[in-house]
Each structure stands twice: as C-alpha cells, then as structure tokens.
Amino acid sequence: MEQNITPVKSGNVRKRKSQPQQWKRNIEKRQRYSAKGLPVHPTCGHRVGYQCMLLTTRDIKDYHEAFYSTPEKSKQGTFILKYCRAEIPNPKRKKKDPVKSKSATFQYSIVNQAGNNLRVCRSTFLNILAPLTKHGIIGVFKRFKNGKSHVPVETRGGNHKEAKFGLKRDAVKNFICTLKASESHYSLSTIRTEHT
Ligand SMILES: [Zn+2]
Fold first, then answer.
1. Per-chain residues with Cβ under 5 A from ion ligand 1
2. Which residues pair with 117 in a beta bridge?
3. Which domain of life is it from (predicted)?
C-alpha cells in the first residue's frame, strides 16, 4: 500500500529535544559575561570631581551584582549605556565621531544605594565591573551606534546555521513530501492504528 509522506506532528517527534543552555558554546558565553571574583575597591582617592571614595562597600557590591545578575552581552550592554557616556574631549573637533575617534573619552557613573549617580574615574568603574574592559565598553557603543536601536545589537554568535541551512532544509522537506512511501511492516502508523 502506498501512502503520502507527511511531516510528523511536533508532539510525536522522537528526536531528542535540544537543550541550548547545555551547549558548550552557550556555557562559554555565560562564563564570558560572568563575574570572576569580588569587585575591587577604589584606591584612587578621588573625592572632588570624581566621587570614587564616596562609594560604600555595599554600593560597590550591589552595583557589581546588578551588572552580573544576567551574564548576557545584551543586558550588560544596556547597563553600560545607562551608566557611561561617550564624550568628545575637544568640542572644536565636534565633527569627529566621539565613538570612532581615538581620543574618545567616556564618563562613568555608579548608582549608590540612595539612588544617586556618582561620577567615578575609569579605573574605579572597571575595577568594580571587572573583568569588563574599556574595549568592552567601546564595543557596546559601536554596536549601539551601528544598530541605531536602544539596545546594543549582538554580533557575536547567533543562529548562523538557520541562515545557512534553513532554505536547504525546507527544500529537502518539500522533496521528501513529494515521495510516495510503501508501508513497511514496522511502520509507526500501523502500530499506532493497531493500538488505538
Ligand atoms: Zn577615582
């Protein structure tokens, strides 16, 4: 007996469900955006202009934890955009792109427990959010600018396989559906019919 091949309903698929959170690539990704230790306290002595020394142990701990509570690049990017500002050091050179410019400077602030933004120097900011680096911050601003969105666009990783093989897979699927199959002795559908 010949019968048409039809795609299996998603509930009946016997294939093992994928567990993306267990993939090596995703574990590494989480580790890349995870804290590697406790935040380092500022030793710069700034009290005027920068307010590094006004931060309490609790402020530092909370800020560090808030940043690393989600080990995801995009969430941390949003966080960085909230507390950092790219600035042009010399306003006369305004035409230059502040992010692209080699002399780009950033302003860093940290929110304390009272909810005030305290301006801090770069070393304090990076020490508290270590292992975040200045390159990491520049990257966030570049992606933010290129994406023209409110959230920095993730450029690393992603579902490249879908883009690469998606069409091919659909074509194969369609081809299989055009085939006629003769029912085998062990056919699942026969077994199911017998049991229902
Ligand atoms: Zn400082």
1. 44, 46, 50, 52, 121, 124
2. 111
3. Eukaryota
| Residue 76 identity (one-letter amino acid) | Q
**Cβ(156)–Cβ(110) under 8 Å?**
no
Q: How far is the CA of 118 from the centre of ligand 1 (A)?
A: 11
* pTM (predicted TM-score): 0.64
Helix (H, G, I), strand (E, B) or coil at 72: coil
pLDDT of residue 81: 94
Residue with tokens 């030793």: 43
Q: How far does residue 99's CA lie from ligand 1's centre (Å)?
A: 22
Percent of the chain having pLDDT more than 70?
A: 72
The residue ranking higher by pLDDT, 35 or 187, is: 35
Count of C-beta atoms within a 10 Å radius of residue 143: 20
For residue 123, how far is its CA from the centre of ligand 1 (angstroms)?
6
Q: Which two tokens stand for residue 167?
A: 């069409």
- Report the separation in Å between the CA atom of 109 and the middle of ligand 1, taken as the mean of its atom positions: 11
Asked if 129 and 77 count as a contact pair (C-beta separation under 8 A), the reply is: no
CA of 108 from ligand 1 middle (Å) equals 10
How are beta strands 2-4 and 105-111 bridged, if at all? Answer: unpaired
pLDDT tens digits along 50-106:
999 999 999 999 999 999 999 999 999 999 999 999 886 666 655 656 555 556 689
